[in-house]
Structures are given as structure tokens and as C-alpha cells.
Amino acid sequence: MTYRIPLGDWADSFVGWLTSALGAVFDLLGAVLRGSYDLVFPVLATPPFLVVALVLAAAAFAAKGWRLAVGSLLGFAVIRGVDQWDNAMASLALVLVASVIALAVGIPVGIWAARNVRVSAAVRPVLDFMQTMPAFVYLIPAVVLFRVGVVPGLVATIIFALAPGVRFTELGIRQVDGEVVEAGHAFGATPGRILRQVQLPLALPTIMAGVNQVIMLALSMVVISGMVGAAGLGQDVVQALQRVDIGLGFEAGLSVVVLAMYLDRVTAALGDRSPVARALKVRAAA
After folding, report:
1. Are 222 and 230 in contact (CB under 8 A)?
2. pTM score, two decimals?
3. How many CB atoms are located within 10 Å of the residue 267 CB?
């Protein structure tokens, strides 16, 4: 006995129905995403290279110190030297827009899941699906719904990077000592006040680890999104693959690495600067 479940046909029909029934909604969503990118990209790409590089290095200095600032400047000089600066800023703009939206959705969902067992049970398999689905698959419905360009890349990146924001937020809040929360209740604090003044500050190091993962996943997906015409380093990576151009591929890939190291170090350092993280380090060293 042989059988075949037509899941692919159902998915194709569902996307077709979305396109015909909610076309206006997707057009509006695409316009909002495109507008968000058009706001961020000129801020990064219009000023001279040295101005943007110094601002980003100043952010690195504020996060971790002069070593990271100097290393960032050297990395940016390499990107500029291989003529990938404009592409790197396009990729950075996509990462920033996608990460902000993913965190704006993911952190509230994570808080909700941490405070409600049923929501957690419902969200968990969805997150499993989102994290294990191959990244390229997200591009297919995105292209059907939004055509090629920046918007499908942003949509695929937001979906792909969303899961760690939810998981780490839920994990961080669940790890808060129950006795501390009970003490808050005993002193008459409202659930909202306990969340704002107890749970979120104590969970901040874990939440920042989630922020770091969201940004890193967004960068990886932004590069893959070059296949559907998203701007940035991904386009050169795709061109290098199509032309078997080793030199162009290495230059674009090296620029991705520099950008990834900068974003990873800065966001990790911001997490380490939280009062709870510093207190844990002091206790571990004692």
C-alpha cells in the first residue's frame, strides 16, 4: 500500500489564496518594510566612510573599550579596501530593520509564553518549525507574496531570526528565582511591576543573549536573501557563485565575517554590562 500526503499542494494552494485574498495587506506590509529600509540605509550609506566608521567604532568603544574600537576600525578599513563598503552598509541596514522588528515581536511573545503555560506549549512547536526549516524555503513564499527585491529578503529574515528572541526571553524569565517573585507578591507589587522591576532586570543577560542570536541569524539570512535580489553583500556572494569568481566571493565573504564579528562583539558586550551580569561575574570570581 502506497500513499502520498499532498502537503506541498496544500501549501501551494494556501499561498495562492493569501496572494489573492490579502493582496492589499501584503502590498501595505511591503510598503512599510521598504520604507523602513529606505529610512535606515541612507543614514549609513550617505555620510563619508570615515564618519560612519568612527561612529560605529565609538559604539564599540562604549560597549567594550578601545581594543574593540580599534579592531572595528581595522575591519571597516578592510571592507572599504575591497570596495564592499556600500554593500556592507546595505546589509547592515537590512539586519537592523529585520532585527528590530523580530525583537519587537519576539520579546513580548516570550514574556507571554513565560507567564502562561498554554501559550508556551502552543508556541514551542511553531518555534521548532521555524528554526529547523531550511533557510532557503522561506524565500519561496516571500517571493510569491512580495516579488523580488529588499522586501522578500526582509520578510524571510524576520521569520528566520524571530525564534531565538522568543526562546531566550521565556528562558530568562523562567530562570528568575521563584522566591524573589513571591517576595514581590508579598510586598503587594502588581504582576506588571514585578515583571518590569524584578523579572526583566534579572533576565536581562539571557534576553541579551537572545538579542545577539537574533542579530547573527538576521545577518546570515540577509546574505542568503541576495538570491531574491535583496541589496547588500549577498548579491555579490550570489554573483560570485554564478560566475565561479573566487576573488569576488572571498571579498564579499570576508566583509560578511567582519560585519558579523562587529555585531557579535558589540551586542555580547552590551549584555555583559548589565548590573546582573556584572554581579554574577563578581560572585563567580569570589
Report:
1. yes
2. 0.88
3. 20
pLDDT by residue (tens digit) across 221-270? 888 888 888 888 888 888 888 888 898 889 989 999 999 999 989 988 88
3-state secondary structure of 53: helix
Q: Which three cell numbers stand for residue 76?
A: 571597516
Q: How many CA atoms lie within 13 A of 12 on its CB side?
A: 4
Q: Cα–chain-centroid distance for residue 266?
A: 14
Structure letter (DSSP) for residue 244: T
Grid cell at residue 240: 560570485
- What does residue 149 show for φ and ψ, rounded to 5 degrees? 125, -155
The three-point CA angle 202-260-29 to 5° equals 80
Spatial separation of the C-alpha atoms in residues 94 and 11, rounded to whole Å: 28
Q: What is 8-285's CATH superfamily? A: MetI-like (1.10.3720.10)
What is residue 5's DSSP assignment? -
Which H or E run contains 184? helix 178-186
